[in-house]
């Protein structure tokens, strides 16, 4: 790059910052005020991310969403620098304000009613409607995926988990038991309980697969967004996430059963159990990444020369 072109580039960047900084600063102030309004639900939400293994992926979601928004930086710069030509009609921005006000009202009502799931969802809706009102619906469309991706940071309600945990445990156990028998291990199955000759194992909630399922779904949307080509490739990635999660969890139960048959039920507890959880995630991540690479290789081959 020549000195002249470098000076031109720097001058454009400085001009862009000078033109947009008041606008950005005002929005940052509004965003900070929004965080203050939703502060009552934030400590508990962060605590769930840190202590509940089923929702530990929530810590990564805001960072990934920022990364996706950063990928759109050129479109965002172009739009914000020329906002006077993109101004929405009055009714459109007013509708964004109405949605923003409504989401705040719903947040207050559900917070008072101790319905945490809905009050947390209202934060996402408030953020989207605030961007809508302040910048216009076209900018919302530009970063719609990063905004909606934030939904993955909202913990699934315990009432929903309790309804699906038992069927998932039973289903995974039904698939794992025949695999254990293939190794010549004698056992008796009673629902999600496996009676071995040396001990008895119970497929607990931690082994139900709900943790790997939520993590794999988040990763599948991440890889789907990064996938090039037709939409069917993205759909394949998302649809395979539950399949990979189930396979990983079945292999975890099978491995635990085989080890417990030799070393006793102690292998189903403590650090061995924790390590198996990490191995499940590594297996699922590797499976999705491999599928992602295969689909992208195919998309490159399909591109015209």
Write a concise synopsis of the structure shown:
With 305 residues, this protein is mainly alpha-helical. The chain has helices at 3-37, 42-51, 61-71, 73-81, 90-112, 116-135, 137-142, 144-149, 158-181, 210-226, 231-263, 270-302, and strands at residues 187-190, 193-196, 200-202.
Topology:
Elements: H1 3-37, H2 42-51, H3 61-71, H4 73-81, H5 90-112, H6 116-135, H7 137-142, H8 144-149, H9 158-181, E1 187-190, E2 193-196, E3 200-202, H10 210-226, H11 231-263, H12 270-302
Helix pairs in contact: 5-6, 9-11, 10-11, 10-12, 11-12
Which characteristics define this entry?
12 helices; single chain; about 300 residues; 3 strands; 2 domains; mainly alpha; elongated; about 5% strand; three-stranded antiparallel beta sheet
What can you see in these coordinates?
The chain is mainly alpha-helical. It folds into two domains: 3-154, no CATH class; 159-302, no CATH class. It is 74% helix and 4% strand. The protein has twelve helices and three strands. It has helices at residues 3-37, 42-51, 61-71, 73-81, 90-112, 116-135, 137-142, 144-149, 158-181, 210-226, 231-263, 270-302, and strands spanning 187-190, 193-196, 200-202. Helix 5 (90-112) runs antiparallel to helix 6 (116-135), helix 9 (158-181) crosses helix 11 and helix 11 packs antiparallel against helix 12. The radius of gyration is 24 Å and the shape is elongated. The model has no long low-confidence stretch (mean pLDDT 82).
From the N-terminal CA to the C-terminal CA, the straight-line distance is: 29 Å
Strand order of the largest sheet: 1-2-3
Which structural class fits the helix and strand makeup?
mainly alpha
Total count of strands: 3
Our count of helices gives: 12
């Amino acid at each position: 790059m020549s000195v002249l072109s470098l000076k031109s580039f720097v001058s454009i960047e400085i001009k862009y910052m000078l033109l947009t900084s008041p606008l950005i600063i005002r929005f940052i102030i509004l965003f900070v005020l929004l965080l203050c309004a939703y502060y009552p639900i934030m400590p508990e939400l962060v605590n769930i991310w840190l202590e509940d293994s089923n929702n530990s992926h929530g810590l990564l979601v805001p960072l990934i969403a920022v990364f996706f928004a950063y990928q759109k930086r050129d479109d965002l710069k172009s739009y914000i620098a020329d906002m006077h030509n993109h101004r929405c009609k009055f009714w459109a921005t007013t509708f964004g304000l109405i949605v923003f006000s409504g989401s705040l009202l719903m947040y207050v009502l559900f917070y008072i009613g101790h319905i945490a799931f809905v009050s947390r969802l209202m934060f996402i809706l408030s953020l989207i409607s605030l961007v809508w009102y302040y910048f216009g619906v076209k900018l919302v469309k530009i970063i719609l995926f990063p905004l909606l991706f934030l939904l993955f940071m909202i913990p699934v309600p315990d009432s929903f988990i309790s309804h699906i945990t038992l069927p998932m445990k039973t289903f995974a156990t039904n698939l794992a038991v025949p695999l254990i028998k293939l190794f010549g291990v004698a056992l008796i199955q009673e629902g999600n309980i496996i009676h071995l000759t040396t001990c008895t194992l119970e497929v607990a909630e931690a082994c139900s697969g709900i943790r790997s399922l939520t993590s794999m779904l988040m990763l599948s949307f991440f890889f789907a967004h990064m996938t090039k080509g037709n939409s069917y490739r993205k759909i394949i990635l998302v649809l395979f996430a539950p399949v990979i999660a189930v396979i990983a969890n079945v292999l975890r139960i099978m491995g635990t059963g085989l080890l417990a048959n030799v070393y006793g039920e102690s292998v189903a507890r403590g650090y061995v159990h924790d390590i198996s959880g990490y191995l499940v995630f590594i297996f699922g991540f590797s499976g999705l990444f491999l599928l992602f690479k295969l689909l992208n290789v195919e998309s490159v081959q399909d591109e015209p020369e």
